[in-house]
């Protein structure tokens, strides 16, 4: 699940649904490896023609999240918890999705700082064919499910497909390749993060906003810090499983807008936002 799917060439269609919109949305994903580098196209099949294009890292380059999932954390520091110290994993039995044999895996958090996941994983490839993310009351926050999967696509056909009318792309990754040591943000300090979450990396996004990212291997959250003037809005917004908590920070006589975004409970995001300071 953490390694093999990165090396595969495949295309498939899946449905997606979240709690704020009961209607099903449909997508097509094209994934291939060229010259040792991952590429991906995610196409919306409903509404306006649009797609997201991503060029990833070289094969063999493992993110911290991948290493956490695979249990390769001994070299990263004893302060990182093992996955089985954060979640209780239960094999729920065999399942058939998109015509393929798979196994259902339930990940139940051992604290109140993350959500539960029900993952159906392809037996042959490790691809997640179906995923449900649920809240503390077992209500689904979002879910997706493959309806077809082709593991032998024509790569030339995939690469030469015309671009959608609306296209967004990403060519860089936040985390470094095969990190061997934990690091911290250059300018900001989070006095509290949920147990087991590790700092992945940082970058500056539009308008000089600092973005910090953390993961426990299954779940991620990002913190956006932006200098601000005037009144700073505070509150909570959500779409499906993705939550955004907005807060303010005063540091060295300046005001900053803090936004914590992730698939985490609101109490987690609020506590993170309230424990940010400068270095």
UniProtKB/TrEMBL annotation:
Entries under CDD domains matching the protein: RseB
Pfam families linked: MucB_RseB, MucB_RseB_C
Protein name: Sigma-E factor negative regulatory protein RseB
Major location category of this protein: periplasm
Annotated keywords: Periplasm, Signal
Domain MucB/RseB N-terminal: 1-162
Ranges where the MucB/RseB C-terminal domain occurs: 184-276
Record carries keyword tRNA-binding: no
Species: Cellvibrio fibrivorans
Family stated for the protein in its record: Belongs to the RseB family.
PANTHER family: PTHR38782, SIGMA-E FACTOR REGULATORY PROTEIN RSEB
Record localization: Periplasm
Family matches, as Gene3D superfamilies: Lipoprotein localisation LolA/LolB/LppX, MucB/RseB, C-terminal domain
InterPro entries found in the cross-reference section: MucB/RseB_C, MucB/RseB_C_sf, MucB/RseB_N, MucB_RseB
